[in-house]
Amino acid sequence: MSTVVATPGAKDTKKKSGAGAMTDRSRSEDRLGMKLVAPAVVLMLLVTAWPMLQALYLSMFRYRLTAPDDREFIWFSNYATVLSDGLFWQDMFNTVLIMVVTVAVELVIGFAFAMVMHKVIFARGVIRTSILIPYGIITVVSAFAWQFAFSLNNGFVNSWLPFVEDNFNWFGGHWSAMFAIMVSEIWKTTPFMALLLLAGLSQVSEDMIEAAQVDGATWWQRLWKVILPNMRAAIMVAVLFRALDAYRIFDNIFVMTRGAQETESVSFLTYRQVIEQVQLGLGSALSVLLFLSVLLLAYLIVKLFNVDLAAARGEG
Amino acid sequence: MTARSSRHPRTRQLRRWAAPAGALTLACGILAGCSGDGSGTPELVWYTNPDAGGQAAVAEACSTDDYTITTQVLPQDAGQQRIQLARRLAAGDTGIDLMSLDPPYTAEFADAGYLADIPDDLQQKFSEQGFESAVQSATWEDELVVAPFWSNVQVLWYRKAFVEKAGLDMSQPVTWEQIITAASENDGKIGVQANKYEGYSVWVNALISGAGGQIATGTDAGAEAEITIDSDAGRAAADVIETLADSEAAPDDLSVSNEGTAGATFGSDAGAFLVNWTYIWGNYGDDQLGGDIGFARYPQTVEGEESRPPYGGIGIGVSSSSEHQDLAVGALECLTSPENQALNAELTGNMPSSEAGYAQPAVQELFPAELIALFQESLESAAPRTPSPYWSDISGAIQSIWHPPSSVDEDTPGESSDFIGEVLQGRSLL
Amino acid sequence: MKNKTSIGTWIGFVLIMIWCLLPVVWIISLSFKPVEETAAGSPQFLPKDATLQNYKDILANDDFTRALLNSFGIAMISTVLAVIFATLAAYAIARLEFRGKRFVLSLALAIAMFPVVSLVGPLFDMWRTFGLFNTWPGLIIPYMSFTLPLAIWTLSAFFREIPWEMEQAAQVDGATSWQAFRKVIVPLAAPGVFTAAILTFFFAWNEFVLAISLTSTTASRTVPAQLSYFVGPDPFNPPYGQLATASVVVTVPIIIIVLLFQRKIVAGLTSGAVKG
Question: Min CA distance, C45 vs chain B (Å)?
Answer without folding.
Answer: 18
